Amino acid sequence: MSNEDMSEANLPSEREHAHHGAVEPVGDPFADPGLPPHEPRRQDIDERTARRSERTVALLFTLSMVATVGFIASYVIFPIGKIVYIFPFGHVSALNFALGLTLGVALFAIGAGAVHWARTLMSDEEVPDERHAIEATPEVREKVFADFRQGVKESQFGRRRLIRTTMMGALSLVPLSGIVLLRDLGPLPEKKLRTTAWRAGMRLINQNTNEPLRPEDIGVGSLTFAKPEGLSEDDENFQNVIAKAALMIVRLNPQDIKDKRELEWSHQGIVAYSKICTHVGCPISLYEQQTHHVLCPCHQSTFDLSDGGRVIFGPAGHALPQLRISVNAQGYLEALGDFEEPVGPSFWERG
Ligand code: FES
């Protein structure tokens, strides 16, 4: 048999359907078996069984609500550090265990309720849906809405009031868990961002020598850094405190001070300003004594210490806060209170 004969022998169906050179398509070799006949469930034919299923679904949704309330209550009941022994997990945080358990039950009960509802009460009749063009015509859209209405009817959402009510309750309570979780962001800052460690009568301590400062220690044109009395570098929260309370002390000729309030808050031309840049909080450290300007090295914001700490260049949003100072009976420089405005980045003032 030649190759030509063999290829023809391998294509009997195409040859059989060939007609004047055209090849006709062969029929679908797999016949559509169709859908098996629908078998009604017990719930479809027995209303008492259907009611039992309804109660089971409602019970699961109610369980979810109770678990969500338990989740919220756990935050109040269990202290954060409480450790308990729970078999087989061993020693675990009581709070974390309670939160995990209650949230797990709340979500699981909603899922289980929905599945049980779908399996026992919603219509389980299979219907073929022919493929059609992607672009929906008005008729198709109307059909979709009709199908949706039919689905709502078949799900018995309107008829089963107990399920509807408990499901709404479970779904509206579960998001509360997320709100409660906000507590894990940590304690509220309260007034911590608006205040510093400075108090009236607190002496200014030289940050390099740890000695209390006297006016005669500060020469004209010099720049001295100071911290509040009683604050030690060995303190656990030293960095947190100094990050807001750090001071720059400069002595100016009183006649060079242009700002009236600055003059009143100074002592013999000695002015105390926050060292924290009001842009994004870098420590300022560059002082130009001829112009009385201080420069922030991060983004070059420049402040005029002879004019109320006013911004004269750069991205900083407002003037450097000034600390009101005086001299106590022993001749040491002391604060007359805290800063009157928040130190550091300007955005704290927007709150
Ligand atoms: S932090 Fe000082 S200019 Fe940006």
Automatic annotation (TrEMBL):
Main location: membrane
Name under which the protein is recorded: Cytochrome bc1 complex Rieske iron-sulfur subunit
InterPro entries: QcrA_N, Rieske_2Fe-2S, Rieske_2Fe-2S_sf, Rieske_Fe-S_prot, Rieske_Fe-S_prot_C
Domain Rieske: 239-334
UniProt keyword Iron, yes or no: yes
Biased segments, Basic and acidic residues type: 13-22, 38-49
Subcellular location: Cell membrane
Chain ranges passing through the membrane: 57-77, 97-118, 162-182
Cofactor(s) needed for function: [2Fe-2S] cluster
Its membrane topology: Multi-pass membrane protein
Protein source organism: Streptantibioticus rubrisoli
Region described as Disordered: 1-49
